[in-house]
């Protein structure tokens, strides 16, 4: 084809293009380019059509080819720079504009695009200078005045930005972009109502303004109007399909709504459009953290920081991950980095407070939480500090303040519920737990706490459904159940193992760097450290005091590690005298305590607290000692790989059950439970039934267990007994007024006179309490959670205990005690057998008398209450553990011989 024909074809293509026949023009441009690949006008014009069709990448490619031919065509440069900006390639766009300005220095359009590209690159001062250069030539350039205000907004020069917006609107009141900038400014200032009004004005003037819909979505998100925010983001996306910020906004909404799958998809869309979005990687990391995918979360935050080392949100995310992994020092460093990147970040101060709280650096935690008195989560943190310090009234006030600031904050309601439970205000606590779970159904431990307070007041409405739901959640690996509270739920030993393992995995995972590194200490005596919160007037201390005194100090060096303040009781003073070292670590962090144990070269750590309320399991999680033992305080497996042994007996954990325990089983030959045979005094006062509201005649069934160990199945069985035994009564502990009321109502519903329930209040004298057991005829044990110390007390006082053998540790304790007393006739295999034995003993005085006589003899002759013998047996267990370790053998099951 001749040059003339080619020129005519090009003119025809231009004509078609100008008349709006874009498809025909594009077809002709392509024919021309095929014949002449360097036809710059055809290349550039086809690029314009492709850009109009949304094919920005192809448009940019064609325009770049056109400029390679006409290297000084300023119009080409203008169009190419515009497309590059639409693609987000602001650096190349800026370079194109600067080249154009070298050719045509006064080109207002190039100055405008260059300034905008510099703004997008966050080169704010360069952008401002370029806008000023443009406005010095065209002072009334409305778009430039408006965009210049965007630079001032980015520089936080709000007054100057507002003055620029006002100037633009004075020149053109209908300029939608100026109203948009005013809306953005008000949004930055948290003047949300004014922001919404300005967005509305911008969108009425130009409904197709994608940035306005995006900004509106962001403000609605801050106002927690999440559904409206999603609508706004959808409108923005419909107008500009490649708007990554809209996908980012959607991800943020779904994240707040805990719709994590949708949030993840939205963040992925944003990152597909802009892989260099640090915000997108932060969002993706936050989702991974919520899903407990901690390594993936850290990888996302690292990508964000590689893109922007000063991304405060990424440092914050890393800190939160480390906090959940209990890597508190690393968490502190990350939160400090977040504060360096964004001074005054309330989220970083909050995280810092949470890390310091875990480290028990309470004064520093207070200071961190005090940084923003308007942040509800900080008040929750303060409440948690007060809780740790046992300043419960102040804790309640802090949680209430959090609720006042943010009524939908589940953690605040949960904290309040926990405090009400401490005050034994169980009915109010139940309301608070119900509120907690309505806001966040899966909040750690809240559901089992709710069941516990219901059990404390014997409010059994929906009990079967509650228990079934909790057991199902444990089987699914959720954190709805705290292990200690789960013991009173009718579950299996395997369920309890699953519950403990899930709890340990999240709350007390093994330390990444254990302190003990395999050393074998050489000492003249085996060094044992007993760890407990209960070296005070507490059942654990009452049971173990004699053991500590009887330890062979020539063979064992014993240390107490105590983290609960002294109650100044005689028992506390006695305990302090039992040990060669009695170390108070209440104010020390878990890591400090673990390092102390390591420095003392302790051979065997014995955790007397386990997973009970005041546990400090993170100490043993750091593996400060070569041998670690779960003993007495927590009746079940701790589910932790760092616990080597659990002290039990043949009844508690027979060989057929041992697979349901993480620890190796140490079976003492008689009972796992110690006894203080010299100091558990029984008053010699003459007590009468009338003194306690009991009938002078008639059979007295007794159960002094805590009310949370009762349940509707068990109580219906007890009512059957009262019906079967004329003039009998059931003597129960008076734990709280609500429980008394509810139990009386349950008795009435079962057709039993509620006056046949008699309630025993607390006595100030422990010996008198022991003595009053003798006013009863038969102690009826509970299931699935037996009487433990309570059963030992009853048997020591001479009161027979009737139990039913359960499946779990907590449900087999009383059977172990009775076996050690050679009283197997008081151990039932089924509820029917339990009821049959109870009725026989209540209606056959001779049978009951024979049992009481046998108990009176056996309590003094059988091994259960022989403290010295018990001490020799547990010392034998310690010696075997130690010998295995010194021989390089791994822990294994141990059966201590008689």
Under the CATH scheme, the architecture of the largest domain is: Alpha Horseshoe
> Roughly how many Å apart are the termini?
112 Å
Largest sheet: 8 strands, parallel
Give the number of DSSP strands. 14
Overall morphology: elongated
User: Which fold name corresponds to the CATH topology of the largest domain?
Assistant: Serine Threonine Protein Phosphatase 5, Tetratricopeptide repeat
Labels describing this entry:
898 residues, alpha/beta, Serine Threonine Protein Phosphatase 5, Tetratricopeptide repeat, 5 domains, eight-stranded parallel beta sheet, elongated
Write up what this structure looks like.
The protein has about 900 residues and is an alpha/beta fold. It folds into five domains: about 5-255, Serine Threonine Protein Phosphatase 5, Tetratricopeptide repeat (Alpha Horseshoe), CATH 1.25.40; about 275-360, Serine Threonine Protein Phosphatase 5, Tetratricopeptide repeat (Alpha Horseshoe); about 375-470, Alpha Horseshoe (Serine Threonine Protein Phosphatase 5, Tetratricopeptide repeat), CATH 1.25.40.10; about 525-665, Rossmann fold (3-Layer(aba) Sandwich); about 690-865, Glycogen Phosphorylase B (Rossmann fold), CATH 3.40.50. Helices cover about 60% and strands about 5% of the residues. It has 42 helices and 14 strands. An eight-stranded parallel beta sheet has the order 3-2-1-4-5-6-7-14, with helices on one face. A six-stranded parallel beta sheet has the order 10-9-8-11-12-13. The protein is elongated, with a radius of gyration of 38 Å. The mean pLDDT is about 95. Pathway: Protein modification; protein glycosylation. Belongs to the glycosyltransferase 41 family. O-GlcNAc transferase subfamily. InterPro entries: OGT, OGT/SEC/SPY_C, TPR-like_helical_dom_sf, TPR_rpt.
């Amino acid at each position: 084809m001749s040059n003339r024909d080619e020129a005519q074809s090009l003119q025809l293509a231009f004509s078609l293009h100008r008349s709006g026949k874009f498809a025909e023009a594009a077809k002709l441009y392509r024919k021309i380019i095929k014949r002449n690949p360097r036809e710059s006008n055809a290349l550039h014009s086809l690029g314009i059509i492709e850009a109009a069709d949304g094919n920005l990448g192809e448009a940019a490619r064609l325009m770049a080819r056109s400029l390679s031919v006409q290297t000084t065509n300023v119009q080409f440069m203008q169009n190419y720079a515009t497309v590059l900006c639409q693609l987000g390639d602001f650096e190349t766009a800026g370079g194109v504009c600067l080249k154009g300005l070298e050719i045509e220095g006064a080109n207002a359009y190039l100055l405008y695009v260059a300034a905008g590209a510099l703004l997008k690159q966050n080169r704010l001062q360069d952008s401002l200078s370029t806008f000023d250069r443009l406005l010095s030539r065209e002072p009334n350039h409305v778009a430039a005045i408006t965009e210049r205000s965007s630079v001032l907004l980015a520089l936080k020069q709000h007054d100057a930005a507002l003055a620029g917006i006002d100037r633009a609107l004075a020149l053109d009141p209908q300029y939608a972009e100026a109203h948009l900038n005013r809306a953005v400014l008000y949004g930055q200032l948290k003047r949300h109502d004014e922001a919404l009004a300005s967005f509305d004005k911008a969108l009425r003037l130009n409904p197709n303004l994608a940035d306005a819909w995006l900004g509106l979505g962001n403000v609605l998100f801050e106002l927690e109007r999440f559904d409206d925010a999603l609508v706004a983001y959808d409108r923005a996306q419909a107008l500009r399909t490649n708007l990554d910020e809209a996908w980012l906004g959607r991800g943020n909404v779904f994240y707040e709504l805990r719709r994590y799958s949708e949030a993840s998809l939205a963040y992925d869309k944003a990152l597909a459009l802009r892989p260099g979005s640090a915000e997108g990687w932060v969002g993706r990391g936050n989702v991974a953290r919520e899903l407990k995918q901690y390594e993936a979360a850290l990888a996302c935050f690292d990508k964000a920081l590689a893109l922007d080392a000063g991304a405060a949100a990424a440092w914050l995310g890393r800190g939160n991950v480390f906090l959940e992994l209990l890597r508190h020092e690393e968490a502190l460093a990350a939160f400090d980095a977040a504060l360096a990147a964004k001074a005054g970040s309330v989220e970083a101060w909050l995280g810092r407070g949470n890390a310091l709280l875990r480290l028990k650096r309470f004064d520093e935690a207070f200071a961190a939480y005090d940084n923003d008195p308007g942040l509800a989560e900080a008040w929750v943190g303060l409440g948690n500090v007060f809780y740790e310090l046992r300043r419960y009234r102040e804790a309640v006030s802090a949680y209430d303040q959090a609720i006042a600031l943010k009524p939908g904050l589940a953690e605040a309601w949960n904290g309040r519920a926990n405090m009400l439970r401490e005050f034994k205000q169980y009915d109010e606590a139940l309301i608070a737990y119900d509120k907690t779970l309505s806001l966040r159904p899966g909040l750690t431990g809240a559901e089992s706490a709710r069941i516990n307070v219901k059990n404390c007041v014997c409010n059994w409405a929906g009990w079967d459904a509650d228990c079934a739901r909790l057991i199902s959640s444990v089987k699914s690996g959720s954190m709805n159940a705290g292990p200690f509270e789960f013991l009173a739920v009718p579950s299996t030993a395997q369920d309890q193992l699953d519950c403990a393992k899930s709890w340990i995995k999240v709350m007390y995972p093994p330390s990444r760097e254990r302190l003990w590194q395999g050393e074998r200490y050489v000492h003249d005596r085996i060094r044992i450290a007993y760890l407990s919160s209960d070296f005070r007037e507490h059942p654990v201390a009452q049971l173990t005091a004699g053991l500590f005194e009887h330890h062979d100090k020539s063979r064992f060096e014993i240390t107490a590690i105590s983290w609960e303040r002294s109650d100044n009781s005689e028992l506390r003073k006695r305990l302090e005298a039992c040990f060669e070292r009695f170390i108070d670590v209440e104010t020390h962090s878990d890591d400090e305590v673990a390092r102390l144990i390591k420095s003392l070269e302790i051979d065997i750590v014995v955790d007397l607290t386990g997973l009970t309320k005041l546990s400090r399991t993170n100490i043993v999680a750091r593996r400060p000692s070569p041998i670690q033992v779960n003993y007495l305080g927590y009746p079940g497996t701790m589910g932790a790989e760092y616990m080597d042994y659990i002290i039990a007996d043949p009844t508690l954990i027979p060989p057929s059950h041992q697979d349901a325990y993480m620890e190796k089983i140490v079976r003492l030959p008689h009972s796992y439970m110690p006894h203080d045979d010299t100091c558990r005094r029984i008053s010699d006062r003459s007590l009468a039934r009338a003194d306690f509201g009991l009938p002078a005649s008639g059979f007295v069934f007794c159960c002094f267990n805590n009310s949370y160990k009762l349940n509707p199945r068990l109580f219906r069985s007890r009512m059957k007994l009262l019906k079967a035994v004329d003039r009998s009564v059931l003597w129960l502990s008076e734990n709280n007024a609500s429980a008394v009321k509810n139990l009386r109502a349950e008795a009435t519903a079962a057709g039993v006179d509620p006056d046949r329930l008699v309630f025993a209040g607390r006595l100030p004298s422990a010996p008198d309490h022991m003595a009053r057991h003798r006013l009863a005829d038969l102690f009826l044990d509970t299931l699935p959670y037996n009487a433990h110390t309570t059963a030992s007390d009853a048997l020591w006082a001479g009161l027979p205990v009737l139990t039913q053998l359960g499946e779990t540790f907590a449900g087999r304790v009383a059977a172990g005690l009775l076996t050690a007393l050679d009283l197997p006739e008081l151990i039932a295999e089924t509820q029917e057998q339990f009821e049959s034995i109870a009725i026989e003993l209540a209606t056959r005085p001779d049978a009951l008398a024979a049992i009481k006589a046998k108990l009176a003899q056996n309590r003094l002759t059988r091994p259960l209450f022989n403290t010295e013998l018990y001490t020799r047996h547990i010392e034998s267990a310690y010696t075997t553990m130690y010998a295995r370790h010194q021989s390089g053998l791994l822990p294994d099951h141990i059966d201590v011989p008689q």
